[in-house]
Amino acid sequence: MTERQAEEFGPWLERQLARADMKQADLAQRLDLTRAAVSAWINGRAEPRDETKRAIAAVFGIDPASVHDRTTDIASARPRQWHHRPAHADGGREYGNAAAFAFDADLSVLAREATQNSLDERHDSTAPVRVRYVLHEITGEHLDAFLSAARWEELRPHYEAAAVGGQKVSRSLRAALDDLDEGRSLLLLRVEDYNAAGLTGPEYEDGRYAAVVRRQLDSHKQAGGRAGGSYGLGKATLWATSRLGLVLVNSTLSASHEGRVERRVVGRLDLPWHELEGEAYAGPAWFGETEPGPVHKGVSRSWWADEDEVRSLHLDRSSSDPGTSFLIVGAHDASGDAETLQEMHDKLVRSLADGFWATMIGGRTAGALMEASVTTLRNGRVLVSEERVDPHAHHPALGRALQTYLDGETVPELTAGDQVALVEVPLVVSPLKGRGRARDKGREHRAVLLLTSAADRDERHSRVVCMRGNRMTVTEQRPRELPLGTAPFQAVLLAGFATGREGEDVELAEAFLRASEPPEHDRWDRTEELTSLYERGALTRLKEFRAEIDKAVRSLVGRRESARSEGPAALRELLRLDGGAGTGGGKRTQGFPVVRNVEARVDDSGAWNVTVGLKLPDAEDPWVLTPVAKFDVRSGGRPAVGWAVLAASDDCRVENGNLVVAPGVRTAVFTGVTDPATHPVQGALARLVVDVQKARGGAA
């Protein structure tokens, strides 16, 4: 637990006077001192003697140690209340929080944005940040108790007034209120992190707290240039995921504020503009203690809650480690593909695994950056046990690639199926405007590409997963112009700080790529920030980078000949390969070309994709061979099927449907894709036979 330190005497005393509704002159009179003496304490010019501090404690009715330690405030009768922002004096209106419309109200988007923020705020860099999602459906007396604790009776009239408009937000609110009344059920989703910075800083001035609770488009990231976010929009997904636009917050701070660190609680509500009992309201509202200070008097501010309060608001935390719990009230998944609690639970697990698998993997010298889990409750009872997100279970090949890199065990090229090959990919970072020389192309950064064989159960493969910073997945890239029949693979592209390296080029690449990301942080492309900050040609550098990634993949998959195998067991059972016409699959003499290895799979269209390696005897004349594809069906002959594509891969060429191998060449590789239109049955229901026949005019 973070040790509490005594607050400066002046700010502490000023706040206690406000909480006691007492003026400086009142305290001076009670102490039989001048007002100037009290003013000097508050302004930090002096501090009272010990006997005077004891007298101050008597005035406030507290223990003298509290004045000496200054880690707590005096008890106050100020109630918790909802403060609704008055409408703009100029008549302007906002019918909802525009920032919330920047993203879909989708659980996968929430998981991406909220978890990214937690990762960016990791406190102790030697330990992972722990992220926990808790779904909790409450009904009956549990629902009533929660609504009472959240002062629902104060909020309901504002909801009713805001729900009568014809705007999108008003219609959504009306539906949410109707469902709550009819179903008498409410879904809470608590998003909490541990070993994070927490919402530090003052109530209204610059700091993490104000950036999240009181402002929009204020990123306030302090992650040393490694932050995933940069727009200050991600936090809006918390409110967007609430059908009621309501989020409650409990934060344990990594640095004390007002002499406290635990249970800093506040609520924020985003409604559209509305009128109630003749008063117009802008929409946003805050739940907290009445502000005692003169500047913001009457405004609701955060308060230091006791354990019973956080428990009644479903904001209790499992440890005293710094971090924040956000309770989304009325959580939902607007995409419609997760309606039951189990479906929502599973979607959160998948989303965390897809977006952050790389952050949950550590190497021999450094641990993982993050841990994540999902739990589901109903009325306080466990419905789905806590499920720890296992990156290797969800993405085994990608996880193997990164693990091998972190352990320093990569190879320059693949010679076995479980190896991970590494190749560097150049990224030229354009100079910032006004800082580069004329026609200066920029500074080169060497990104890292890792490639390994795909796992048998990988539904998505033959892609490059790209990341920077804290290793959150930014985008996926499908390499172009790969050789036909390329075996399924998985690849990871690490750029900037994700490489684990340090240096000026790393910092420049990190900033360049971050500037090229839109608010969703899901691609590297043209953005206003990129074009306004960097010299002309920045977009070209990104296009060149993507082309270099494709080139690096081709350089690795083109050298995989020695690693080729007969493919997955299920496909090997479906595949028979004949070395030539009339052989019946028997062993051939060494005087004829023979098949050395083969890869085969049936793609989504039903076509067979084959890659065939040949071994050829030495010959003085070219070999001219005709590959013929046939289906070995259960009855009847072997009907021939047509090739949609027939292409040379290594040491051969295709002419008029034949393979031509030059004299003296001892090995060759070709690829083929059958034409489903010529299949007598579905491709997956037959064995494929490939006859490699000598064409007319061919050697031997």
Structure commentary:
By secondary structure, this protein is of the alpha+beta class. Helices cover 26% and strands 28% of the residues. It has 19 helices and 27 strands. Strand 21 and strand 22 form a beta hairpin. Helix 2 crosses helix 3 and helix 6 crosses helix 13. About 5% of the residues have low confidence.
Oligomer: single chain
What is the share of helical residues?
25-40%
Beta strand count: 27
User: How many strands, which pairing sense, and closed or not: the largest β-sheet?
Assistant: 12 strands, mixed
Poorly predicted segments: 228-232, 561-590
- Briefly note the structural class of the backbone: alpha+beta
Number of helices: 19
Approximately how much beta-strand content do the residues carry?
25-35%
Rg, nearest Å: 33 Å
Distance between the termini: 82 Å
Shape summary:
elongated
Mean pLDDT: 86
Topology, element by element:
Blueprint: H1 9-19, H2 24-31, H3 35-42, H4 50-60, H5 64-69, E1 80-86, H6 107-120, E2 129-139, H7 140-149, H8 152-162, H9 168-183, E3 185-194, H10 208-213, H11 236-240, E4 242-252, E5 264-270, E6 274-276, E7 279-290, E8 300-301, E9 303-304, H12 307-312, E10 323-331, H13 341-356, E11 370-378, E12 381-388, H14 391-394, H15 396-406, E13 421-429, E14 443-453, E15 463-468, E16 472-477, E17 489-494, H16 504-515, H17 528-533, H18 538-557, H19 569-572, E18 575-578, E19 594-602, E20 608-615, E21 623-632, E22 640-641, E23 643-650, E24 653-655, E25 658-661, E26 667-674, E27 687-694
Parallel strand pairs: 2-11, 15-17, 18-27
Antiparallel strand pairs: 1-7, 2-3, 3-10, 4-5, 4-10, 5-7, 5-9, 6-7, 7-8, 11-12, 13-14, 14-17, 15-16, 19-20, 20-26, 21-22, 21-25, 21-27, 23-26, 24-25
Helix pairs in contact: 2-3, 6-13
